[in-house]
Amino acid sequence: MNILVVGGAGYIGSHMVKALGEKGCNITVLDNLSSGHADAVLAAGQLIEGDLANVAMLDQLFAENNYDVVMHFASSIMVGESVTDPAKYYRNNVSNTQNLLDAMIKHGVKQFIFSSTAAIFGEPEYTPIDEKHPKAPINPYGHSKQMVEQMLEDYDRAYGLKSVCLRYFNAAGADPEGELGERHDPETHLIPLVLQAASGKRDAITVFGRDYDTEDGTCIRDYIHVNDLCEAHWLAIKQLQNDGKSGRFNLGNGNGFSVQQVIDVCRDVTGKEITIIEGARRAGDPAVLVADATLARSELGWEPQYNDLKSIVSHAWEWEKNHC
Ligand code: UDP
């Protein structure tokens, strides 16, 4: 199978490329390396440094290659930045994605796997969140992903482009073999930040609010191992190849862990002291975000392997220890 992985040098994309390599796929990675790392691309036959804004480059790429499937991991992902610089998010996440889809249509490539997000649901009306939950994003990041999901529905109807949108809850963890991990700059995600406080790279972790309506007052999230996410992508490709039906799936373990519980597990796993600073709430953070992934389990046959926080944190810690 020939697969184009856009954003294959990033955190989730690079784990996907490794997994696809192990399954014997022919992989091309397209990445502008704005936040990805060339050395994270372990298995691609070809790494092309290029930007989705470049329509001529896309046209040539699709003219010269026969891709069966396109996977799209490349996007801007910082919620706070999306509020202060929405233009960047609508350009990178929406316009550039449209360039990619239009090149696919022009060259007859009809299968697309899209990295979507729990942020399309906005403030939860109920939890766990299933696919029927109303979609009401509360920031430009969530809007940008929701717009692409809408575009994909319309492109399916009009042009027969089949897509699977996978809404990640909190992607976390690292390659269990230690070859890949999370390398965002700046890092904003909880688990790597707590582990950096454990390793001494940071002085402390700031807890964003302890006055939420949860048991210990801190926010609850659904952390899902990056390899489990990758497995869901693989199953989504197989579904597209088998029955050619578009699909939308929420991906999480279905278990919520509070910020305090994450810190406690990080203390256990690392054996290190971790200093906590009590901070204010971060704007736009819902108290609880937990996925109902029943549909992914029943339709894709997805079964997360790492549904305990300890193995997620252990893999992330192995990576952090070797890269701090
Ligand atoms: N969080 C925190 N301190 C930090 C970073 C995150 O308390 O330095 C909290 C954040 O408020 C949220 C949870 O950790 O409740 C997960 O945040 P993250 O940014 O990792 O993912 P998000 O849920 O925003 O996608």
Structure notes:
By secondary structure, the protein is α/β, with parallel strands linked by helices. It has 2 domains: 2-171 and 224-251, NAD(P)-binding Rossmann-like Domain (Rossmann fold, 3-Layer(aba) Sandwich), CATH 3.40.50.720; 174-222 and 254-323, UDP-galactose 4-epimerase, domain 1, CATH 3.90.25. It contains 10 helices and 14 strands. The protein has helices at residues 11-22, 55-64, 79-84, 86-106, 140-159, 190-199, 226-243, 259-270, 294-300, 309-323, and strands at 2-6, 26-31, 46-49, 69-72, 111-117, 162-168, 170-172, 205-208, 220-221, 223-225, 247-251, 257-258, 276-279, 288-289. The strands form 4 sheets. A 7-stranded parallel beta sheet has the order 3-2-1-4-5-6-11, with helices on both faces. A 3-stranded mixed beta sheet has the order 12-9-14. Strands 7-10 form a two-stranded parallel sheet. β5 (111-117), α5 (140-159) and β6 (162-168) form a beta-alpha-beta unit. It is globular and about 55 Å long. The mean pLDDT is 97. Bound molecules: uridine-5'-diphosphate.
Under CATH, the topology of the largest domain is which?
Rossmann fold
Q: How are the strands of the largest sheet arranged? A: 3-2-1-4-5-6-11
Give a short account of the largest sheet: 7 strands, parallel
Whole-number tally of structural domains: 2
Beta-strand residue percentage: 15-25%
Distance between the termini: 37 Å
N-to-C series of helices and strands: EHEEHEHHEHEEHEEEHEEHEEHH
Mean pLDDT: 97
Fraction in helix: 40-55%
The tally of strands reads: 14
Described by the principal axes of the CA atoms, the overall outline is globular
Gyration radius (Cα, Å) is 19 Å
Oligomer: single chain
Number of helical elements: 10
- Catalogue the ligands: uridine-5'-diphosphate
Q: Which structural class is indicated by helix and strand composition?
A: alpha/beta
What is the CATH architecture assignment of the largest domain? 3-Layer(aba) Sandwich
User: Unreliable segments (pLDDT under 50, ≥5 consecutive)?
Assistant: none
User: What's the CATH H-level homologous superfamily of the largest domain?
Assistant: NAD(P)-binding Rossmann-like Domain
The CATH C-level class name of the largest domain: Alpha Beta
